[in-house]
Amino acid sequence: MARFHTLTVKEITRETADCVSIVFDIPEASKQEFSYIQGQYLTLKLHVGGEELRRSYSLCSSPVADSEVRIAVKKVDGGRASTWLNNELHTGNKLEVMTPMGNFWSAMDAANEKHYVLFAGGSGITPMLSILKTVLHSEPKSRISLFYGNRDEQAVIFKAQIDALAAQHGNRLSVFHILENPAPGTAALYTGILTAEKVAALIENHIGLNGNNEYFICGPGPMMENVKQVLTQLRIDSKLIHIEYFQAVAEAVKAAETASTQTAGTSKVTVILDGEEKVFDIPQNGSSILDVAYDAGMDVPFACKGGVCCTCRAKVTEGQVRMDHNFALTDDEVSRGYILTCQSHPVSENVVVNFDEF
Ligand SMILES: Cc1cc2nc3c(=O)[nH]c(=O)nc-3n(C[C@H](O)[C@H](O)[C@H](O)COP(=O)(O)OP(=O)(O)OC[C@H]3O[C@@H](n4cnc5c(N)ncnc54)[C@H](O)[C@@H]3O)c2cc1C
Ligand code: FES
User: Whose CA is nearest to atom 3 of ligand 2?
Assistant: First the structure.
């Protein structure tokens, strides 16, 4: 199970006016636990203004192409954790960091001849950089197209690094910057925001549609919905589309709230964590299973509490639950019984939830 370690900040690099990347020093004894897959994230437990904040940040380093463990944090307006990390964090500070998690990846194989099509917006580049460096290193016959949307050139995180990789791997990595305020003379196709029409035009111009394509999407909510809509219209198999949400999608949250069930009984829920079992009577329409277990003193893992990361993942081994929202688990995980405990309420009379069956 994922757990927090205290790590020292080894290096902080200012990437843009509102984004820093942070390298952690991983002690030899923790190296195994901090081994990760491209596209995964770390969760930080911060104490800001007397408040405990848990926030997830994707790794931008590659597990095979880099020896460091690096995340990048873009400041959001009024954002408590991201502002603190951008303005107050110093090299040598110690932070509580959870071991890596996340599903935003596909297995690497040197024999693959895939075309990875990456759609990123703003800080959504972070897991993409990890993915693209890993593919370049691990799959010599695969290629990558990156469509990267930003406000203007100054806002492009990792621009120098990405452009250098494109120059080095010209035939395997194609990078298309799409800027709201580009340099004068930029073609209309690469100007503006990633609307559904723009995404469709970019795919038509640059991507041959075939079964070897695999799609990754990460960025602002509306942009992700636009890309998803176009790929669905193009009848791309959903198994080939990977999406990483940094925030809940407001429309989906509203729809789930409207559709909330009318069940009203109480269930017996057994929660298993680190080999320890606790049994709770939990109302079917009340607090989440995670909240009940946490309030009872169990050290259950969580971060966003919004159904967006998968830090609170556990397996239902008996009974049924319903989830309010799920922006993180794949259909396959759900069919195998995995749930986001922060979104889950019991439905059947008896339920067993196991955090150890990871
Ligand atoms: C799996 C995962 C991976 C992530 N990876 C990264 C990453 O690599 N780099 C990165 O910078 N962030 C990443 N995030 C987002 C990050 O976890 C925080 O949500 C973000 O830094 C904002 O936290 P905050 O405390 O600063 O803002 P809060 O104090 O929580 O929020 C303040 C305001 O900002 C808005 N807000 C919250 N989150 C976002 C957001 N992501 N974008 C825009 N507005 C927002 C809120 O609606 C609110 O109005 C990731 C999130 C998840 C779930
Ligand atoms: S804590 Fe993020 S999905 Fe539950």
Answer: 307
Least distant ligand from the CA of 327 = 2
Q: How far is the CA of 326 from the centre of ligand 2 (A)?
A: 9
| Ligand 2 neighbours (beta carbon < 6 A) | 302-305, 307-312, 328, 340, 342
Which domains can be identified in the chain, with CATH numbers? 4-98 (2.40.30.10), 115-247 (3.40.50.80), 266-354 (3.10.20.30)
The tens-digit pLDDT sequence of the chain (358 residues) is 778 999 999 999 999 999 999 999 999 999 999 999 999 999 999 999 999 999 999 999 999 999 999 999 999 999 999 999 999 999 999 999 999 999 999 999 999 999 999 999 999 999 999 999 999 999 999 999 999 999 999 999 999 999 999 999 989 999 999 999 999 999 999 999 999 999 999 999 999 887 799 999 999 999 999 999 999 999 999 999 999 999 877 665 655 555 555 567 999 999 999 999 999 999 999 999 999 999 999 999 999 999 999 999 999 999 999 999 999 999 899 999 999 999 999 999 999 999 998 7
Nearest to 358 by CA among 305, 306, 314, 304: 314
Report residue 169 as tokens.
């791997």
Residues 148, 79 contacting (CB under 8 angstroms): no
List Cβ neighbours of 237 (8 Å cut-off, separation of 6 or more): none
- E-assigned strand segments in 263-357: 266-273, 276-283, 313-318, 321-323, 338-340, 344-346, 350-354
Atom of ligand 2 nearest to the CA of 307: 3
